[in-house]
Amino acid sequence: MYVAKNSRGVLVNLLQIEKSQPLIKETYYCPACRQKLILKAGNVKQRHFAHCAKKTCESFSEGETAEHLAGKALLFNWDQEAQLEVSLASIGQRADVLLPQLALEFQCSPLSTAKLEKRVAGYKKMNLQQWWLTGERLKEGVLRQGSSHFCLFNQTFGVHFWHLNTSKKSIELYTHLLTMSKQKSFKRKIFNFQEQPLSQIFGDRNSVPSIVCSTKKDWQQQKLSVQKKLYYCLPEILQIQQALYRRGSHLLQLPEILFAPSIATPFFGDWLYFLRFHFFQKSLSCSAIDLHEFSFQLTQRFLQTYQLQQKFPLVEPAAISAAFFTESCRLFQAFQQKKTSFKVFSADSL
Ligand SMILES: [Zn+2]
Q1: Measured in angstroms, how far is the CA atom of residue 33 from the centroid of ligand 1?
Q2: What pLDDT is recorded for position 293?
Q3: How far away, in angstroms, is 57 Cα from ligand 1 center?
Q4: What pLDDT does residue 284 have?
Q5: Whole-angstrom Cα distance, residue 41 to residue 48?
């Protein structure tokens, strides 16, 4: 940590004191738990404070790695409006960096779902928007192992997350994760140090790299991969097949357009085809309002059964249902019009 209270109760921010300038010998205290701090001034990490006794301070669950220290300094120096390590007494939390109405968290190590949810709820209670930026290790976790803890979701970016690159001094936005149901597929946009204020980057809606368009050929390919899974009797695909069978259908009998990639593929996987089949069937027989309600219930039930909230704690389940509904309506329309291509991200959602 960089911010401490001195014995007179005045906040001292190490980043605002010239490095060459030696600190006055005095006692420093943690602004949150009021315990004594020690000043660490080695060669590897930036000059910082640390608690004498570890793991006793509620506000500091994040171990202070060199990356975490560097990241906080980077964010603080990025923006004139940024405040460093702000204690929010009413929720017992401390934001790494605070902008007006926006709390920034730079997360370098994994965090349990329970802890993450608690911090998310805290900021919500204060009506603060929150911006979670991942460090190197967590970024690799998402891209290589498909971990999804810090992923967000909206209809513009699909599944996406933010990364703070401390060595390149940039913020990276990874979007459209796994949309084409291929592992490791994503798009990336880079924001360089101080090119834009932080709040502008956070609110950036002009950065959609491109719309993902699929054609009949892609759908056939996807169908073929499902056929292979059936051939090898993969347990999940057999379950889906059984569910379809009970409704008088078969995976390989489904219209090809049902295999078009989806904005919601990361949530539904191959169950997407079953959900779409259900949706198409219902579309033929009920009103728009009923269809909306049906679609909402169908997808929410699915998300609960598979405990998707555990996997994506930062994603609102209702947003997934809404995206599924919008997309499925357009897909059904394309099906009726016998279209041979389909855009995953509709123009009006940009
Ligand atoms: Zn403390």
Answers
A1: 4
A2: 96
A3: 4
A4: 92
A5: 7
CA 138–ligand 1 middle distance (angstroms) = 25
AA letter at 87: S
Distances (CA, A) of 104 to 2, 127, 155, 267, 291: 16, 14, 23, 26, 39
Residue 56 CA to ligand 1 centre (angstroms): 7
Full-model pTM: 0.87
Residue 209 is predicted with a pLDDT of: 53
Cα(30) to ligand 1 centroid in Å equals 5
Distance 48 CA to ligand 1 centre (A): 13
- Residue tagged 């605002």 (tokens): 16
Sign of CA dihedral 184, 188, 194, 196: negative
Tokens 């900021």 belong to 123
The residue type at 167: S
CA of 77 to the centre of ligand 1 (A): 23
Q: What is the pLDDT of residue 165?
A: 98
- Give, rounded to a whole angstrom, the gap between the first and last alpha carbons of the chain: 39
Distance 95 CA to ligand 1 centre (A): 13
**How far is the centre of ligand 1, averaged over its atoms, from the C-alpha of 39 (Å)?**
14
List, for residues 208-265, the tens digit of each pLDDT value. 555 677 899 999 999 999 999 999 999 999 999 999 999 999 999 999 999 998 889 8
CA–CA separation, 231 and 237 (whole Å): 10
Distance 313 CA to ligand 1 centre (A): 27
Which stretches of the chain drop beneath a pLDDT of 50? 346-350
Distance between Cα 38 and ligand 1 center (Å): 11
Q: State whether residue 97 is helix, strand or coil.
A: strand
